[in-house]
Amino acid sequence: MNMRLGFFPYEAINYKAAQAWLDRRAERGWALKRVWLGCVALLQRAEAPRHFVDLDARGGFDGDVDADYLQLCADAGWELVQNLRGMLLFRSAPGKSPVPIQTDSGIEWERFWEKYRPRFRNILVTLLCLGLLAVALALPSRRNFTAMLALNSGLLYALYVVLMIAYIALEWVHSRWYLARCRRSGRVEDPGPAAAVLGSLCWLRVPILCLCLLFMVLEPFAGKTVDLDWYPMNEEYTATVEACRGWPVVMASDLGLPDSEDSRRLEGFRSPLMDFLEYRELTDGEGPDVPVYILTTERYDCLSESLAKWAVRRRREETRNGAFLWGELEWEPAPGLGFDECYICRDGSYLLFRQGGTVVLTGCSGVDLTTEQSLTAVRERVLK
Amino acid sequence: MARKKLETLSEQMYYVLLALHTGPMHGYRIMQQVSGLTGGRVVVGAGTLYALLGRFEEEGVIRLCGTEEGRKSYELTPAGRQVLENEFERLRRQVSDGARLLEKRDAE
């Protein structure tokens, strides 16, 4: 085999680690031919190859390199392989053993410090922005973030954000440590294996973001477990009572209310962490004296009991701030109703309970769900 | 201004200016000249030389005097000659001081 591949995730700030990586390959007779997709190094067999990684002092992005500089390097026996993320990757011309491109560690360090000193500020600004984002997310919200765990795209996005935060935080710590170390020695040092870990973390975000985008596009089709819908204007009558009855959700008829002739909707998503179902029914009885009932059921089948406990906690907080169709719900513990965990509000017309890994939030204005009859119906429908 | 900033030269700076003292030349020729002058003891890398030439030009120590086949040629300015002479004098004094003390100790 005259070719081989290697993972080359290094950022420009860690260009000495990239140099060390290439030096190790060169010792075994491998010369860099190209870096594909920003991180896949293609190496080829060569006679006593040498490499040099230099900083592109003109900019940080791939682009044109100073022609005078390149000419000087070419005269000295260096071939530019690639300009990658602000790093200039050189290898020795065939049959040549040129002098290293940088021979004055003081000048090299001055240039490095000048380029990366402002980075401290940038990283601090980024951390500040992420902090503000975290605060914004922690603020009361009316959205059902719990159900996002049932979306594969939501999970991937969360993973992406976590990775991004981890990367920025680690990079900040590493940069501080590394620049302090270089300042002490007065030269650009090899940052060691941490550079490869950071680079890998940085690159791991790319496929996750791509998968996330892919799932965002496919989720409405592929991620759904059920999508039944009916209302009078809809020509396709899919959400029949019979069709919905096959799913473990509380329906109006289960509570002794008239079947809906107005609208009915059942939707579900599934991810490796959670199976989510949401059922909504609006019963509009005939005649002016017959009340209108709005019934909603959310069901979360969680991967573990601890996740289910978290879902209960999270849904309590979310609905306390106001939920769609429900308004603000003030929950009270109801330990005597026979569930592992149970809360009620508005005189029992809203019920949030957990049984093992299953969480159910159901509510219907004007109906007491804590009566023995209603509880039996609820248990029968959602827990059997 | 130039003298203030370049009061003390590094070894590579000194030899680059010394190489240019022999006449105008382009970058790679300077590298070869430095290596030749020092018998290979001092070598200047392309990147280091590129940075030095930029800095010297900015300080008015050297100036561009022509371009041939995409290679820029430089020459020393009078200010550059002065910087070189000052450095030579400084080094000469260092050697002289060292010789006086070290030879005295050897004699004892």
Give the key terms.
heterodimer, A: 384 residues, alpha+beta, 8-stranded antiparallel beta sheet, 3-stranded antiparallel beta sheet, 8 helices, B: 108 residues, Arc Repressor Mutant, subunit A, 5 helices, 65% helix
List the helices and strands and how they pair.
The complex is a heterodimer of chains A (384) and B (108).
Chain A: E1 3-7, H1 15-27, E2 30-36, E3 40-45, E4 51-55, H2 67-76, E5 78-84, E6 87-92, H3 105-138, H4 152-185, H5 194-223, E7 224-230, H6 241-245, E8 263-270, E9 274-284, E10 292-302, H7 305-320, E11 332-333, E12 341-345, E13 350-355, E14 358-364, H8 372-382
Antiparallel strand pairs in A: 1-3, 2-3, 4-6, 5-6, 7-8, 8-9, 9-10, 10-14, 11-12, 12-13, 13-14
Chain B: H1 2-5, H2 11-21, E1 25-26, H3 27-37, H4 46-59, E2 62-68, E3 71-76, H5 78-107
Antiparallel strand pairs in B: 1-3, 2-3
**What gyration radius of chain A follows from the Cα positions, in whole Å?**
31 Å
Please give the CATH class of chain B: Mainly Alpha
Q: Beta-strand level of the residues of chain A, as a percent range?
A: 15-25%
Largest sheet of chain A: 8 strands, antiparallel
Low-confidence stretches of chain A: none
What's this entry about, in short?
The complex is a heterodimer of chains A (384) and B (108). Chain A is an alpha+beta fold and 384 residues long.
